[in-house]
Structures are given as C-alpha cells and as structure tokens.
Amino acid sequence: MNLILSSTVCIEVNKKKTSTITFRIDEENDHKLRKIAGEKKVSLNTLANQILGNYVQLERYMEKFGVLMMSQDAFSSILDLLDEKQIILLATDIGSKEPKEFILFKWKDLDSEIVTDFIMIYFEHCGYGTCDLEKTESEIAISIHHKFGKKGTTFLKVFLESLIQSTLEQPCKTIITEDSVTIRFSK
Prior knowledge:
With 187 residues, this protein is an alpha+beta fold.
C-alpha cells in the first residue's frame, strides 16, 4: 500500500505560503515516518516539512560541496591524538578556509546575518554542539555547548575565531569553559 498525500493550491499560514503536493511513498517508510512524528510529538506534515526543508536549505549544498559527516566519538578520537599546538593549527586552517568557501557556495555573499546562520546550521546539523543565539542592535552572541572536553573547546574556540576573522574581517570576543564556547562579534 502506498501513502498518497493530496490536494491543491497555496494557502497562507503564519505569513508563509504553503502548497499541497502529492507523493507516493512505500508503506514501510510511511509507518516509520509516522512513528518518528509520534516520538517527536509533531504531525506527519510538520515532520515532512522539516525533512524537505533540511534537504532544500542545507543537505543539497553539503552534498555538492563534499561535506563528510562523522560521529562525535570519531571527532573526539581525532582530537585525542593531537596536542594543543596541532589542534590550534588544524582549527585555524579549517576555520579560515572551509566556512568562507561554503558560505559563498550556498549564500553567494558574506555578512554577519549569513555567517550567524552558517554557524547555527553547522553546529546544530553537524552535531558539534547545541547553540544559543542572542542578538542586540549592534552585537551577535552565540554560545555553543559541546561534549568534547578541553581539547574540543580549544578546537571550537580557534575554529570560530578564524571563521569570524576570515569571513567578516573583524575581531571577536570569546569566553570558554571546558564544555562551552561563547563568541561575540559586531553586526
């Protein structure tokens, strides 16, 4: 049995236009998606929008750009093999090149809003940590909580500082703990 989602035109919900579309999916995937939606306590429609939005907004660019995913354990294992100097060199190299190239690839521009969007997506989607964002008229502050310990904090601090310097060409203020990095920079 195939699930058929159907209907017609565009309607406006929360100032966003929506449209109805029809898909046929395997019954097994239907059952799994309904189970996932139930576990997340969202409707099947919301889950489908999240999945499709994630693909449209990020995953297709990651595929084209050649982004590799790795587990948190694998990342921790790599960090464990490096000393602090090597971690700083690696984070500086990656932070000053890859984000700028990806941002220009996806957004075709560099500004504080786009860089902030990239950081939030990068950390939330790739599993490097949980983010919290605070904006004022003149400043952006992003806090990242992670599970990589002291070496992870060193990597993420240097990575973020290099990212801000290479994309926005401005200084930033960073506060660290063993499991978190907070970075502030001007809009």
